[in-house]
Amino acid sequence: QAVPAGSHVRLNLQTGDREAKLPDSENGKSDTREERRRKRLGKVDVDSNSFTSQELKKALAKMKESEKAERKVSSLFPNRCTVRKKFRPIEQLKEEFEKLNVKMETDYEIMVKLISKFNSSASTLDEKVAALYDLEYYVHQV
């Protein structure tokens, strides 16, 4: 059975049943999705087709405040920035591997090759079966 988003779900190992519980709020009642939305958005009228300029200014001010807070957190945790510096974009990695005469393929490119191998009339039955097994592995990763 489908459960609402934000519910706590667990598997009872004694009975084997899955149990779901709505999260409790501060006042002991469970918030509905609409109540959580109102708390998050504040007093902005989200049901109207357009917003007033004052509502937009207030929302923009909130966004700027949260951005300032985020910058403050990143200055408190400098390791977060150094971790990003350790990784390079895939395009740069491809260029470096080409210089070494090594062709790097993404999973998508490999999957396209396997599908074309499976659809090829020149492939033998064993090659098609092997392509399906390999394709199953890559699809499972996705």
From TrEMBL:
PANTHER family: NUCLEOTIDE EXCHANGE FACTOR SIL1, PROTEIN FOLDING REGULATOR. GO terms for molecular function: adenyl-nucleotide exchange factor activity. Keywords: Endoplasmic reticulum, Protein transport, Transport. It comes from Phaethon lepturus. Residues 16-35 have a biased composition (Basic and acidic residues). GO terms for biological process: protein transport. Residues 1-44 are annotated as: Disordered. This is Nucleotide exchange factor SIL1. One of its GO terms (cellular component) is endoplasmic reticulum.
